[in-house]
Design goal:
Blueprint: E1 12-15, E2 18-22, H1 27-31, H2 39-48
Antiparallel strand pairs: 1-2
């Protein structure tokens, strides 16, 4: 796993080149601090990924 800096307000979880979670919602929602993916959903998606050797 590696962390890559992006633009201010950007948030993506990328695994093997595929985005599995991202910050969404309207611009107003983002400005007000919302739009973050549900942590439990991100964890569930990560746990479903094939295990690497």
């Amino acid at each position: 796993m590696k962390r890559v800096a992006g633009k201010s307000g950007q948030f993506d979880v990328v695994v093997d080149g595929k985005v599995i979670a991202s910050r969404g919602g309207s611009m107003l929602k983002r400005i007000l601090g919302g739009g973050w993916p549900d942590p439990e959903e991100v964890i569930r998606l990560l746990e479903q990924l094939p295990k690497s050797k």
